[in-house]
């Protein structure tokens, strides 16, 4: 743990002392080495018990995959940012790397700490760097409004969580997750549970708490979109998993029945909204809302199968959604627009693009044997086994997801070429490598399906 943090600090110092002509190659190489070091954290875990890194930092089969996902995708995000960030100069590249490293260290602490107060601090620490990435390197003037939406939604929802954690500490003098699981607090009640869970439902986010997400995705640079979809949204799912065990009885008896039905219908409505989107990034963002809503519904059932399914969904969705935003940026760089109609028939000039879109949209809709299908089948099975009330919502969600996923492929890769999208430059080697680095982990999950099971 200390090695990873000190190495990250070393990367920050390197970024401010490396010549601008060599900074991208140097930083990406250093983060790649840091990923190899982080893989040792997963090798030290076992299937059930905590593995202690120190007196207050632990990992298990829930946190280790998310740590590895974070360290894997940060160099990929940097690779996508080369020549794709506006207003770059000698110092802004170093500032961008510093903010990204700061987010990575905060995620590492949040995924390993057992103290709920420290988890909250790390949870909220990621907001300021993400806000700066959106507001400083966004492409349009609306990025300021998107930053306001992002910060207000997350801060307002986090205030009840902070108050609840302070109340728990003042009464129990302890906020350690491991100790609390053995000796639950006498303060546990339905209002306290709702205050704590609300922050994670906004961060995921589920339907009705999602309004900040499409705005943030649309106005963020490609690095910000990949970071939000692939890593930061998973903090909400991770926090919900941890606090679900702590607030087990209020969640299972009172909140779960309402939350399951609410999330299932919210996921179906989010999929329906995707059918009306003309902006490619906004469509992918609403797709994330749909997937995460069904994941939270599965977690609310409280079964071990749903927990394993949620881990598979978080890992695979992080890879697939990040790849979709990278592909959207490939089209945006060439056409100057994210509108589906304007990007129509780019296949005539970019021969490999249809295959990449087909691979990712089928992964997004959950086509076997891609790992999304296993996670969604297990999640939907847990929901249906819990009760038949959400069966119709699940069917609608599956239908709408299939329609809009295939519509993306059909709209972008068929039809006649127009004079405004006639381009002669093919996909570059960097862009090929960018998509391959998303595909390789998916292939690994197909070959070893229980790699990230709980």
From TrEMBL:
Any matching Pfam family: Oxidored_q5_N
Domain of life: Eukaryota
E.C. code: 7.1.1.2
Entry GO MF terms: NADH dehydrogenase (ubiquinone) activity; NADH dehydrogenase activity; ubiquinone binding
Compartments where located: Mitochondrion membrane
GO cellular component, one term: mitochondrial membrane
Annotated keywords: Electron transport, Membrane, Mitochondrion, NAD, Respiratory chain, Translocase, Transmembrane, Transmembrane helix, Transport, Ubiquinone
Membrane topology designation: Multi-pass membrane protein
Catalysed conversion reaction: a ubiquinone + NADH + 5 H(+)(in) = a ubiquinol + NAD(+) + 4 H(+)(out)
Membrane-spanning intervals of the chain: 27-50, 62-81, 93-111, 116-138, 150-171, 192-213, 254-276, 283-300, 306-328, 349-367, 387-412, 433-452
Domain NADH:quinone oxidoreductase/Mrp antiporter transmembrane, first and last residues per copy: 114-397
Biological-process GO terms, alphabetical: ATP synthesis coupled electron transport; electron transport coupled proton transport
Domain NADH:ubiquinone oxidoreductase chain 4 N-terminal: 1-110
Presence of keyword Glycosyltransferase: no
Similarity-based family: Belongs to the complex I subunit 4 family.
Cross-referenced PANTHER family: NADH-UBIQUINONE OXIDOREDUCTASE CHAIN 4
General function of this protein: Core subunit of the mitochondrial membrane respiratory chain NADH dehydrogenase (Complex I) which catalyzes electron transfer from NADH through the respiratory chain, using ubiquinone as an electron acceptor. Essential for the catalytic activity and assembly of complex I.
Identification of the protein by name: NADH-ubiquinone oxidoreductase chain 4
């Amino acid at each position: 743990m200390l090695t990873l943090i000190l190495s990250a600090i070393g990367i920050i110092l390197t970024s401010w002392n490396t010549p601008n002509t060599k900074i991208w190659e140097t930083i990406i190489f250093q983060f790649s080495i840091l990923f190899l070091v982080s893989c040792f954290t997963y090798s030290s875990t076992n299937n059930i018990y905590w593995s202690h890194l120190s007196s207050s930092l632990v990992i298990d089969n829930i946190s280790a995959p998310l740590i590895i996902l974070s360290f894997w995708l940060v160099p990929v995000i940097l690779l996508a940012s080369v020549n794709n960030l506006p207003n770059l100069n000698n110092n802004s590249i170093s500032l961008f790397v510093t903010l990204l490293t700061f987010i990575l260290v905060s995620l590492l602490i949040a995924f390993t700490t057992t103290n709920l107060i420290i988890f909250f601090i790390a949870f909220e620490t990621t907001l300021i760097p993400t806000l700066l990435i959106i507001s400083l390197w966004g492409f349009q003037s609306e990025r300021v409004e998107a930053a306001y939406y992002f910060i207000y939604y997350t801060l307002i929802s986090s205030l009840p969580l902070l108050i609840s954690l302070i109340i728990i500490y003042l009464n129990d003098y302890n906020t350690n997750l491991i100790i609390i699981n053995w000796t639950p607090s006498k303060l546990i009640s339905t209002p306290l549970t709702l205050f704590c869970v609300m922050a994670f439902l906004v961060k995921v986010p589920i339907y009705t708490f999602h309004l900040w997400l499409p705005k943030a995705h649309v106005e963020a640079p490609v690095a910000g979109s990949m970071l939000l979809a692939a890593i930061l949204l998973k903090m909400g799912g991770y926090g919900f998993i941890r606090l679900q065990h702590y607030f087990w009885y209020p969640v299972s008896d009172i909140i779960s029945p309402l939350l399951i039905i609410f999330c299932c219908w919210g996921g179906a409505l989010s999929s329906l909204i995707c059918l009306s989107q003309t902006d490619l990034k906004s469509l992918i963002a609403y797709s994330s809302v749909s997937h995460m809503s069904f994941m939270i519904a599965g977690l609310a059932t409280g079964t071990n199968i749903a927990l394993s399914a949620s881990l598979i969904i978080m890992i695979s969705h992080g890879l697939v959604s990040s790849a979709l935003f990278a592909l959207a940026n490939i089209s945006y760089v060439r056409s100057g627009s994210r509108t589906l109609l304007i990007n129509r028939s780019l296949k005539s000039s970019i021969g490999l693009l249809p295959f990449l879109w087909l691979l990712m949209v089928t992964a997004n809709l959950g086509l076997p044997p891609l790992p999304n299908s296993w996670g969604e089948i297990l999640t939907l099975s847990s929901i249906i086994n819990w009760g038949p009330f959400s069966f119709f919502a699940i069917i609608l969600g599956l239908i709408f997801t299939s329609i809009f996923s295939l519509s993306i492929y059909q709209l972008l890769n068929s039809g006649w070429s127009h004079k405004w999208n006639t381009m002669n430059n093919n996909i570059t080697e960097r862009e090929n490598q960018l998509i391959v680095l998303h595909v390789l982990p998916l292939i690994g999950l197909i070959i070893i399906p229980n790699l990230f099971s709980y």
